[in-house]
Design brief:
FAD/NAD(P)-binding domain; nine-stranded mixed sheet; 11 helices; 34% helix
């Protein structure tokens, strides 16, 4: 452990969308920021790769033009049941498709250009003592700061160290993601249900189709491998069968992630400001987790700046303000996402719901709005 650790205003643990966005934002206010990320850039991640247009004003403020990176504009939405009954709708706000490989890398390069200090290492412990954080890494280095942002994703060994409630419970969900080349409309995002799960489909840059599905691990392990599971379960949805069978894989093999938890998390844990999936996950059936990550980074950044500039005079007030902002913005989204996911997990009920929603487009638009935010205001 180094006897004279480097001191920063803010240390961000995790370099995904939330962490990188916060780093860029904070650096614009001449704060000394360290971002610690365990992986190299660029890197593919298990993700739906659809983002609501609500984040465009903020990404532009950060200096990121997604369309110059090849993002596909998305205006339409489709949802199907396991029996392939289809629901169609326009997306009033719209969105875009872009891979995490491209977007995260662009944000990383922007962060470096804004004088954010970056470090490739693994955080093993976060200690808080005398109103100051100490970050200990795998390489046995120590860094100190007044504020720490936790933006390390869905689950981490840090969650175990912090004894967070959600990490103590087993989660049954597994996600599989791949990129393929094939025929699929550029302006469409689709969510196709199958028994025990659902798959998101949309185009990203370079005319590539992103396929990302989530399923119950217990159902999955009844089959010998991914190929057999897809043949026997996923392809019972004729839309998914057509897409998979008529496309060519870009990846050598699919990416997978297990133990995905949609359990409630706290936005503040041991004085750490949690952002993105570290603070809470929306069911992929409702999409938009990427937008939530970016929006949470803006909320956190505004309050961190006010706190470090003395406009917020105590840590207690600072933490309560973030908790309140996070709940006001995301609590309803998460509830609607959880409720919708539960309904569509019941196959017979899903068929009835599709019939109802097909006859009530206004109701469908209302549900979509509940899982999306208004365009972000840059201030």
């Amino acid at each position: 452990m180094n006897p004279n650790p480097q001191i920063f205003d803010v240390i961000i643990v995790g370099g995904g969308l939330a962490g990188l966005s916060s780093a860029i934002h904070l650096s614009k206010y001449n704060l000394k920021v360290l971002l610690i990320e365990k992986n190299n850039y660029p890197k593919h991640k298990v993700c739906g790769e659809y983002i609501s247009n609500e984040v465009l004003p903020y990404l532009n403020y950060l200096g990121i033009d997604v369309f110059s990176l090849g993002a596909q504009k998305i205006k339409r939405f489709e949802l199907s049941t396991p029996k392939s009954k289809l629901l169609k709708s326009n997306l009033s706000l719209g969105g875009f498709g872009i891979s995490r490989y491209v977007l995260d890398h662009a944000l990383y390069e922007k962060a470096k250009s804004e004088s954010v200090q970056t470090l490739q290492d693994i955080v093993t412990n976060i200690q808080f003592l005398n109103d100051e954080f100490s970050i200990i890494t795998k390489n046995n280095s120590t860094y100190k700061s007044r504020v720490v942002v936790g933006a390390y994703g869905k689950r981490s060994s840090i969650d175990i160290t912090l004894e967070r409630n959600f990490i103590k419970k087993k989660s049954p969900f597994l996600a599989v993601k791949t990129h393929v080349k094939g025929d699929f409309p550029k302006d469409l995002v689709a969510l196709h249900n199958f028994k025990g799960g659902y798959c998101g489909v949309s185009k990203v840059e370079n005319d590539v189709i992103n396929l990302c599905y989530i399923t119950d691990f217990t159902a999955f392990k009844a089959y010998k491998d991914i190929d057999e599971f897809q043949e026997e379960v996923v392809f019972k949805n004729t839309y998914l069968k057509t897409i998979f069978k008529n496309s060519v894989p870009v990846f050598e093999k699919p990416l997978t992630i297990s133990q995905i938890s949609f359990a409630k998390k706290s936005p503040v844990e041991n004085h750490i400001i949690m952002c993105g999936d570290s603070a809470g996950m929306i069911h992929p059936l409702c999409g938009n987790g990427m937008s939530m990550a970016i929006r949470s980074s803006q909320m956190a950044s505004h309050l961190i700046i006010d706190y470090l500039q003395g406009k917020i005079t105590s840590r207690v007030v600072f933490e309560k303000a973030y908790q309140k902002s996070w709940n006001n913005e995301f609590k309803t989204r998460l509830k609607v996402g959880h409720f919708a996911s539960k309904l569509f997990s019941k196959n017979q009920l899903a068929e009835v719901l599709i019939r109802i929603l097909n006859g009530a487009p206004i109701l469908l638009q209302k549900i979509i709005k509940q899982t999306h935010g208004k365009p972000m205001v840059v201030k």
